[in-house]
Amino acid sequence: MKEAVRTVGIAGLGTIGRVVGRALDDGIEGLRLVAVAAGRRAPAEAELAGYRHQVPVVDAATLAAQAEIIVECVPKAAFAAIAGPALDAGRILVTVSGAGLLAYPELVERARAAGGHIILATGALLGLDAVRAAAEGNIRSVRMVTRKPPRSLAGAPYLAAQGISVEGLSAPLRVFEGTAREGAAGFPANVNVAAALGLAGIGADATTLEIWADPGLRRNTHMIAVDADSACFTMTIENVPSDDNPGTGRITALSVIAALRGLVAPLRVGS
Fold it and tell me: Which residue in 39, 58, 89, 106 has a CA-CA distance of 20 to 30 Å to 224?
């Protein structure tokens, strides 16, 4: 028997939301886009005007009422306003905002109370399945080193607070060293990957992070080193920056699409 189509709502039509929205409009078997919420209504409606299927722009509460699956693609400042109503309604929240989840840990309990679910998509990282598996045993250490072109880090709150400039660099500059939690707070638009790594493994406070501004790079690069009783492994990924937002890799939106497919596909690869 063919399964019923599941309804999807998208919050935010920026760098990630636009790609996900177009994929849903083009057609993903088992899924149907039914509504969008956006902070700026006019640009959202202009984007949706080019879709094959008519989709309304609604508020967060209406989005949660109309869609079984909510894809969260908004800035961190608006994260709770989208995630809260969705989870209170018992919906499935798909997000790449590890930083948002660290900032609002109570959302996990709200999801449990209402029967909702949170799926933190892989985003721009790799190997989260391996880290999660290792966490079932004993992980001794998790270290991450992020290197990005300076323009990808420009505007980060931590840089402004510390008076660090990444303009005109001629050599790599380490701009941060600390925990994944601290890095996610100081670079909310840049290192959601560090927050996700912390949530997958030994926690954001025990996961160490370095961030480098490297003028010799064109791609956002993340290296992860894990030392566990079950395995020791090192992984590196070089992400092609999005055209309109150099701080977000192109693969991030694709990871959200892959997560959505996994919700309805008869075969899902990966734990």
Answer: 106
